[in-house]
Amino acid sequence: MKKIALSLSVACALASAAASANPGAPTLDPALAQQLQSLAAEAANAALAAGSPPVRVEVELGQLDARLQLAPCQQIQPYLPAGTRPLGRSRIGLRCLQGPTKWNVYLPITVKLFGQALVATCSLPTGSVIEARHLMLAEVDLAASPEPAYTTLAAPLGRTLARPLAAGDTLRRGDLKLRQYFQAGDLVRIVAVGNGYAVSAEGQALNNGLEGQPVRVRTESGRILSGLPAGERRVEIPL
């Protein structure tokens, strides 16, 4: 695969990929190049949401299926298929808008977003309790997994590994065991959080309170509510 910077050159590369299956296809016009730049911005925004801004962006372009026999086309439009995650291994749609035969094909791509995140300094088996000496910051591909990578020591410190890490592996959310804040049957504090206010009451947990997983609680009046564990014997319910 060919590596390129995610910029206007992506448009040219996509045009070249289409032309390899369709020698008569022209290069993309500036409007289509701008569309691809918008897709690049979307991918960068997703990286920011993952917790760390990318410092370097690369795209690896795949190849169209060699068995394709595409009719000549005077205008090819690239687009992001609905529901496609524009990070990691993905695909870009290419469709012919002007030609004797309309066609639509998909070009595989890999979008890499490099930024600083925590990696293992040594091999760590399942069950290891994370210490500061186990991790260091390094440049990694934030888009290599949909799971967010940890960028500071505060969150993973003292947590237990749910699966082994090799030296150099990026520490991601799914690598750590879920914290359990309470058990089914425990009395918990129910906090209903609204815009600028919070109301709390006591209730009983109906299932174990695992980090990030919905939990059902019964209020003193017998009403059943659903919320998220937010700390030791604490359940938050957004209003």
TrEMBL record:
Gene3D superfamilies noted in UniProt: 2.30.30.760
Keyword Signal: yes
Pfam families: ChapFlgA (PF13144), ChapFlgA_N (PF17656)
Signal peptide: 1-21
InterPro entries: Flagellar_FlgA, FlgA_N, SAF, SAF_FlgA
Assigned keywords, A-Z: Bacterial flagellum biogenesis, Cell projection, Cilium, Flagellum, Periplasm, Signal
Record's keyword annotation contains DNA-binding: no
Primary localization class, coarse: periplasm
Chain ranges of the SAF domain: 115-177
Family: Belongs to the FlgA family.
Entry function: Involved in the assembly process of the P-ring formation. It may associate with FlgF on the rod constituting a structure essential for the P-ring assembly or may act as a modulator protein for the P-ring assembly.
Protein's UniProt name: Flagella basal body P-ring formation protein FlgA
Organism the protein comes from: Pseudaquabacterium terrae
Gene that encodes it: flgA
